[in-house]
């Protein structure tokens, strides 16, 4: 389908609209304004109040039909100071899709950030002899910038996602992307579990499976591969977590098994991690080690996560059970001495199954102040590929936990 480009200028400010319509809009939107009192039906579902960093990429959206109107629409964008003064404005008409011109968007963001102001967005729809105005969106612009890049894995959405796996870097200030890794160059093997030490782009690792099995570690100017020699136990390093200082990396040693499982909601894939160990890699000493409490053959372990001070390691654990419906992980922790590389004892943090809630923990993360743990909860297993997942917040100071 052709995607013609339309622009509407107002002074020095210009907005760009990409529309899927095959011809320009000719109908002028005018008439008395009638307030609808409801939010515009946009996708993504941006809230009416947001706080934006001053370097975020344009927040494009699509306006969807509702009981008030099927379009066309008029969109007005303003920069407002804290005192309510309008510093700049622009407007456009659209049938459905709205895409802001990047240069204009950032110009407006910078004006708002310089005075701790806001962006205002008014959306009007054509009604019968009137303009229908949706609830105004007021987006506060903060002074702090967001980190400039996001690194993510892109996989094919089918029964064999390893046929196409790529790691991309995306600019969060615009929509530019850069390919970092592509598994077509490594025999279409599984390429997963990439992570950075904090947000340091110079310290990163990625795990490879298949014929090139091992963990590639990039530590500044040095690059090494961590691979277990033949003859040693099968210790595959997955689900990594860097300690805050970057010295230690915790791994779950896992072998993935996928099996179909039918529950009361739908048939889903149950992904089981079956090697069940937690291992620690000392970057400074080039040493892989663990302790008996994290190698206990009675349990399966998954998703380690360091506390902010590095003095405690959190992880998911379940007993080795045969029935799929019993495959639910609790959240546990173990003390750790970073100076000597020694461990304390395992403690239960939260076990929802023991509370009769029949939920399983996955992917815990500790808050910087040491008070909270935020984790995903699933119906079964610990692999977050299921669409029934929720977030759960645990207060370590009070012992209370609740859905987030």
Give a quick precis of the structure.
The protein has 404 residues and is mainly beta.
Would you mind describing this structure in some detail?
- This protein is mostly beta strands.
- It folds into three domains: 5-141, Sandwich (Immunoglobulin-like), CATH 2.60.40; 148-227; 233-404, no CATH class.
- The protein is built from one helix and 33 strands.
- It has one helix at 102-114; strands at residues 5-10, 13-18, 33-35, 42-43, 49-52, 61-63, 73-80, 86-94, 97-98, 118-126, 131-133, 137-141, 149-155, 165-171, 177-182, 191-197, 200-208, 214-219, 222-226, 237-242, 248-253, 256-262, 267-273, 277-282, 287-289, 299-306, 312-319, 330-337, 342-350, 360-366, 372-378, 390-395, 401-403.
Contiguous low-pLDDT stretches (5 residues minimum) are 1-27
Which strand-content bin applies to the residues? over 45%
Mean pLDDT: 83
Computed over alpha carbons, the radius of gyration is 26 Å
Strand count: 33
- The helix fraction, in percent, is under 10%
Please give the count of helices.
Answer: 1
**Secondary-structure-derived class:** mainly beta
The 3D shape can be described as elongated
Please, what is the oligomeric state?
Answer: single chain
Q: What's the number of structural domains?
A: 3
Separation, N- and C-terminal Cα atoms: 42 Å
Describe the main β-sheet briefly: 7 strands, mixed
């Amino acid at each position: 389908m052709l995607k013609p480009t339309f622009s509407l200028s107002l002074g020095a400010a210009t907005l760009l609209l990409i529309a899927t319509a095959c011809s320009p809009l000719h109908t002028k939107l005018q008439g008395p304004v009638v307030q609808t009192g409801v939010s515009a039906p946009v996708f993504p579902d941006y809230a009416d109040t947001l706080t934006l960093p001053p370097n975020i990429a344009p927040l494009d959206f699509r306006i969807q039909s509702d009981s008030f109107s099927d379009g066309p629409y008029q969109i007005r964008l303003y920069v407002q100071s804290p005192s309510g003064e309008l510093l700049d404005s622009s407007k456009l008409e659209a049938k459905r899709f709205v895409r802001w011109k990047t240069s204009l968007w950032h110009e407006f963001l910078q004006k708002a950030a310089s005075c701790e102001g806001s962006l205002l967005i008014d959306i009007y729809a054509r009604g019968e002899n009137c303009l229908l105005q949706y609830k105004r969106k007021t987006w506060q612009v903060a002074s702090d910038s967001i980190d400039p890049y996001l690194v993510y894995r892109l996989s094919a959405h089918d029964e064999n996602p390893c046929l196409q796996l790529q790691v991309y870097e995306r600019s969060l200030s615009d929509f530019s992307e850069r390919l970092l890794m592509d598994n077509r160059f490594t025999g279409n093997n599984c390429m997963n579990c990439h992570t950075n030490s904090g947000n340091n782009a110079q310290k990163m690792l990625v795990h490879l499976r298949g014929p090139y099995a091992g963990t590639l570690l990039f530590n500044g100017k040095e690059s090494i591969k961590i691979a277990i020699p033949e003859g040693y136990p099968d210790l595959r390093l997955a689900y990594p977590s860097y300690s805050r200082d970057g010295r230690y990396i915790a791994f779950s040693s896992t072998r993935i098994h996928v099996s179909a499982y039918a529950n009361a909601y739908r048939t889903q894939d149950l992904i089981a991690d079956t090697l069940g160990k937690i291992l620690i890699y000392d970057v400074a000493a080039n040493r892989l080690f663990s302790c008996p409490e994290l190698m206990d053959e009675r349990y399966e372990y998954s998703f380690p996560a360091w506390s902010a001070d590095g003095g405690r390691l959190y992880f998911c654990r379940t007993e080795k059970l045969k029935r799929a419906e019993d495959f639910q992980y609790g959240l546990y922790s173990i003390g750790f001495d970073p100076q000597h590389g020694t461990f304390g004892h395992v403690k239960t943090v939260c076990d929802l199954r023991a509370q009769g809630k029949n939920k399983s923990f996955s992917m815990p993360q500790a808050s910087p102040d040491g008070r909270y743990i935020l984790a995903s909860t699933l119906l079964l297993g610990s692999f977050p590929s299921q669409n029934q997942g929720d977030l759960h917040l645990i207060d370590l100071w009070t012992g209370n936990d609740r859905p987030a």
